[in-house]
Amino acid sequence: MSPETALFHELAHRGALILSGDDHRTFLQGLVSADVRTITENHSAWTALLTPQGKFLHEFFIYQHGNTLLLEGERERLEDLRTRLLRYRLRAKVTLESVPELAVFGTLPPFQGPLRNLSHAGDTIAFGDGIACMDPRLPAGGIRIVASRQAIPETGLTTADMAEAAWEQNRIRNGLPDGSRDIEPEKGFLLEYGFDELGGVDFRKGCYVGQETTARMKWKHLTKKRLVPLRGEDTTMPQSNSPITLSDGQPAGIIRSSTLDETGTGFLAMGVVRLDAILETDLRCDSTRLKPCPPAWLRLPDNR
């Protein structure tokens, strides 16, 4: 393979909606956890839609595309996201439509061609008939591209397919949640899943759906568990929602998404773990030993 070859992985489980209309920005600003005013053609954001009680419903990325906003979320749940957002439309002049012709791709370093111009979280450029964006949460998350499938070849880049495992290993090592695979809808709270440290919530923007609960959890330090990467010493990956226990059998959390590790002799997983168990050296899932690997960005309270 040429050293100038760019490896891309199609994130087939992700898709896009397009939000347009005279009021599209003010409409979205009052609903989601990120500050929509920061989004430009050169900067994108990661955000969430919550219940009025502050519980998670959807996570998605927001990109400016011309005079519209692209919302990149879980493909199988896009219609639910669309329905829930439009419940708040009232007299707002907005249109929210599915764009099935757009696909979502991911690529990791070394970057090639115009992608070399992206260096900071949220950096965004036009890419073919769509956009390319350095992951707004963390540059280590790689670059996300939302465009038609023919857009990448038309850029002139020499490309090859990236294995899904390589993308997933990088995502999990860096502690980046992937929708309902990692966050159970109508149960999780944003601060349990890194939205504070990863820029998915703005505490200065003003009101949005679920804002009161989210702010109270932050200022009163009410978070009791966190999503963290785990390493397992087995080639049999655990099922989602498998229990995590301490060595004495006491419950410590649950498994969410997982993939085989780089060696093929173990696995990486995302787990929702009690704060007081995150630094334990002998967690278990059934008989498999688990090692928590909190990423550098994750802030743990001193009183955990």
From TrEMBL:
Organism superkingdom: Bacteria
Gene Ontology terms: biological process: iron-sulfur cluster assembly
Keywords annotated in UniProt: Transit peptide
Matches recorded under InterPro entries: CAF17_C (IPR057460), GcvT/YgfZ_C (IPR029043), TrmE/GcvT-like (IPR027266), YgfZ/GCV_T_CS (IPR017703), YgfZ/GcvT (IPR045179)
Domain CAF17 C-terminal: 224-299
The UniProt record lists the keyword Transit peptide: yes
Protein name in the entry: CAF17 C-terminal domain-containing protein
Phylogenetic lineage: Bacteria, Pseudomonadati, Pseudomonadota, Alphaproteobacteria, Rhodospirillales
